[in-house]
């Protein structure tokens, strides 16, 4: 057979390519199989080789073990036992075979036996780590598991596994506390090992060791131990317990975790908080709970603390390993006299071990350090095998060597172990136990030797040891009982977290709760016992449940005896005897039965145990001892003995069985066959009868229920009456032994039934209860003080240098350099690289700065002082501020500046330089002395190149330096290339693009602080690179050629966008695009990558940098249900700090917003696609995927220019805008085209806020590159809205895709929170609204108050009411832009109306004071135009110019920061100014003495004061409201509330309460008199205490400056105002002196009436219209005012009584009046226009009176007067309608004042009309009558006539009236005598 060819192909796994050659070796194994095939025509052979190459790493070697196989060779192991060996290891470790790596097979050359060493390592199971690079089992775990299961491994692998060999660390080659680690190192490759089927090439590692100082130790030679509790690592009041190499936290009840960091009451579920498969459930009310699986798992965290140990069972945990000190605490319960509690160490007595056992009911510790064995045995009276829980504590430590300085110098050779049982004062028991007596609950053992540590390599076993061939240095091998609460180094061990379990069970069944409600009968208590229960039966009852009656209880005193003789009973099988007893006696006879043939059955006590003996004669034929339990404990016990026979085969055997306590314990033995059938002669209880009546072996105690029979069911109690009794007492009542006070002082006595015990008080020990302070257990001369509340009844008061329970630890032990703490030292952990000293405070551990360094408050870095030697006294500085000690006059932290900008630092302090800027330090540059006006150019700071410039100003000194042109050394090469590009000396291609990106990345990484030139260079290069890349496509992209290109680009961008570079960016953006352009280029580049991803096969990627995160990902369009990007869950490596900021795409992102056109277009597209697909043989499936790119800029927002969309409908910019989130750019490419349509459903962008305090009013915005602001765009809000917000996050939805962010206001006020004092403001404004409404209602309801001034007040109040109401209800409606705009417009309008009406109020008062005529009645068209029209015009104009200026995100009003505010504040300021000016003029007019006045004007002054006060109050309130909503200052809101509450009530009080007219109107309304009774004219005068004029029941208020006179008063001059009496005398020019006398009778009263049937017939607008007609019709104002018709009649008070008699009798008529000297220029007046006048200079209280006298006139008859009166009554006011006259101006008249001063002259037609009337009047004969003057006046004499055309036709002659007026006017001319005017 010829083998022609063997083809072998070797392929290495992919993972091998990434393994460093320096850290691996190849282990090669080749397996061969064969297949037969014909090759030579008959046969052929083919060999198949499987090559397996294993990479051996350092990790595998450090986690490997070497197994020793007995009687094994290399070849035999490889074939065929290798597979069985792998199966055995996999079975033991529950691992996969492929995870077991064998890398060495080598014969053991150190021994003569044929032993094979097999080195291996094993990967952890696949469920925790399935990758090849996963973690391995540690070498310790492998040793424990494989060693414990050697028997199983031997069974499966058929190979004997020997114990582990001693490694080199057993000799303790490391000094002090250093830890020795046995390691395998690479040596060399071994030659191939061949077998029948395996070709194996191992590696031969060599054994080595490594010494390292473990955690918890320090020092140059690891000689000092550290207390790792120094840093208080336990949280939430957890108690830290130090242990070797770490610490343990004892947590409060509701906390858990390694550092008590998890709160079960308020925290939430965390991984691993519920143990052993428990399920964690978060509670709605807070906190969580663990739902434990079935079993003995305990709340709250499903841990297992208790286990039961049946016989031959044990459980395995991780061993303690090499230790210098440790502590173990364990609680156990057992009834066995001996048992093994714990074992740790190797399984032979040659090495270190510890064993904790129970030997003869006492705890015993045995330990060895490899050289000798030491036993430690405390003693507990009564032992620990009583079935109760007992606690054993083990404390092991190595005494340190203390040097002369008091510093520990490493461990000594003395090893100490202390064992304590139950609650024992360890120190007292150890030091003074022999003095106190029986206080031996603690014991210690000491062992010396060369070894320092206790090497407990091997598993920790509880309850037993396995059956191994080795000998264990222990006396017992098992434990039967229960264990719980295992603590190692104060950390509780979960008993379910074991390595291996061999038969132990969860929980403790023997200690479970056996008692139930009805367990014991007769209502007796139930007591849980070991594996059962006990009923405390009353006397006379027994049985397991106290259900049996126990007859004849008797007390035996030791010499008592009860005997039954001549019993007619035969011992027949079965035969039963039962008895119940209690005793404290250890020896005695319970029962003795005597039968025939001297046979005896004896039940007796022997050393506390039950002993059964059967005798025939004197020969003992059988005996039985029940030694499991002591019975002399004083409790009731039930004992029964049963004799029975058993049949085995054909033989019959007889047995005696003892049942104790109802079968809880039992024993049996075989008995002689002679006993059955014997007749029972006698039975005695309590002893045996002796000679002379004595009792031998007497029993002391109580017995009851002696029963005998065949079975327990048929047994009957013996009758005590038939027995012979000796010294027996009925019952079982014993005296209390404690009554005699048998116990020593400081103790209390316990009645133990027929015995007593003494228990010492806390702090007293021993048989005599000695005071522990008498022996003073406190160390170092500390004092012992009694404290009953402490754990042991005393405390040790330590001196200042010691601490601990017994003051055993010294406080001030010095620690080495770099360490601190007490009693153990801990590391300082000071960061030297940040300027801290490596040594720290020895007491607190606080780090301190190096010498000549300082640490600013709140900073974690120390900085050098760098004090300027010339200006400072020393190199030291302040430790916090860094301030150096400066010389006089020198300032600056480094003492390198002067307080005078023109002084420089010298050796003597500061010296002033008068012609230059001084030499000074700034920006780490010394600037030289420089002449004024010149710049200083110096080299840039160290590490940079360029020129720094600083200007010297003659007035300011040095200006800030300019370092923008400085370039860091790392950017020099880049700057040169950038300059070449800008000069077109070079070009950018793909190679240079990659090179520049890499160079930029290296430069940015190695530059700590950027200069302006650095940022500019990097920006320009990045800009050019991105522009170049954005023009490439396909494989021309640099990203397809360099895997790091994208990362370099974005890392450079992240460095540039550092907020520290903001000042540089601001300068760059003045001339270049800056960050906005960079944003656009990055967006375009991401789009290019997404567009070319399919072409170039680029994989999705996510790059995370400190300031930029970019993610490009694929989207499956076919099954797209929305996506959240970036997908951080799939990100490998570090994740960004902010993982909350993300973009959520809707499922309809690929569909545009649906319209009719889009639907038609989409239908055509679908049809076209179907047609194309039908034409294609292979449809393109690439369209099933889309590409999404997301870029998150963390810091870009602060660097972008603050530019916003000017369209306020798109964006209302807050007052203090700030971008408070990252900027997120999103784009999607579908079929290589970017989606730019309006989305059907909006995308959702979730942001995490940068700042949560002082940030409000969020607006979702995007950067719109097309906004023409600065050429780079700006923020806009179109298409975006806020959909969610909480304290830290905001979600926005937008219908397009671009770069998004959230704009907020730097304010704590949210939208709708413009009124922080909401309740106060609402309450105060409500008060004002109520007052204003009440004021308006009163003015409207009192119809008598219908003067023009009252109308002005009503309009002003209405405007102010609506202003306040709209402000209150709408100022915070900023959420609805339209409503907010309307509210702002209404506020603008109504507030301007308010101020307009206040201005009209002042103007009206001024006119009333200055104009001649009474303007208080008449139409108000002019006033309405000013009060409502002008504000409406201004508001409409402002709305038309800037409608977006109304309302803003803060409030619904005008902002003080917008220019439109001047359309509001300007008119109001003008109105207020004009109002103040008019008020001043009015005040002057009211205070001056007019040349025609004669009375004081008190009411005018009051009116002016009221108007000015209201103006001031409303103005201040308006201004405060404007400031409050535009400002966050709280004081404005308080002031607004105060003034708001005042303005309404003030207006109400001044306009209503303090207004006399209103009070009189109220009075009239209350009197309800008929106005028809009032006739004629009521002229108010001071004598009648009446201030207004009443005509026909109507109130006509005279001007403020006039006082009313009586009818006897003289008429005033033409300068005076016209009264509202129907006869008016006025002049337009200089008047002639004349007198007229008229007669006044009842017929003339018709002249005082007004026709009420035509209320709207007005001749002119006497108040408002400024035409010439005002003067012509001014005399009609009283009877034809539109407002006057609304006034009701006032009652005729006493001021009217002097004018008319109560019976309406007529006044006698006199002759016709005589007219003298009637001037041709006298203005004619109609009859019926009676005039009363008063002085302008007097008030209502003036003393002047108007007097009207009637004189006879021969020319005018009484009949004519009557005819005139009748005519007037018939025609009403038709006279006035048909006859309109105009006044004829006098060319010599004085210029008129007030609002009428610019009236035009009358027309020619008017003059002719007047001349005609004058001619008619001249035909009458005029008589002259003199009258008395009431006072002298300086005025003119008036003679006026007026005759209507109707009177001419009827032949009516005017009435002559003599009026004498006395006036005083400073401006008038003429004589001082009284003037008489005749008409």
Task: Please characterize this protein's 3D structure.
By secondary structure, this protein is of the alpha+beta class. It is 22% helix and 28% strand. It contains 28 helices and 104 strands. The strands form 32 sheets. Strands 40, 41, 42, 43, 44, 45, 46, 47, 48, 49, 52, 53 and 54 form a 13-stranded antiparallel sheet that branches. Strands 84, 85, 88, 89, 90, 91, 93, 94 and 97 form a 9-stranded antiparallel sheet that branches. Strands 19, 22, 27, 28, 29, 32, 33 and 35 form an 8-stranded antiparallel sheet that branches. The radius of gyration is 60 Å and the shape is extended. It starts with 24 loop residues before the first strand and ends with a strand. The N terminus and C terminus are likely disordered.
Q: N- to C-terminal separation?
A: 171 Å
Radius of gyration: 60 Å
**Count of DSSP E strands?**
104
For the largest beta-sheet, the strand count, sense and barrel status come to: 13 strands, antiparallel
Uncertain segments are 1-26, 31-38, 128-133, 1156-1181, 1489-1498, 1569-1879
Name the structural class.
alpha+beta
Put simply, the count of helices is 28
| Outline type | extended
Mean pLDDT: 75
Tell me roughly what share of residues is in helical segments.
Answer: 10-25%
Strand content: 25-35%
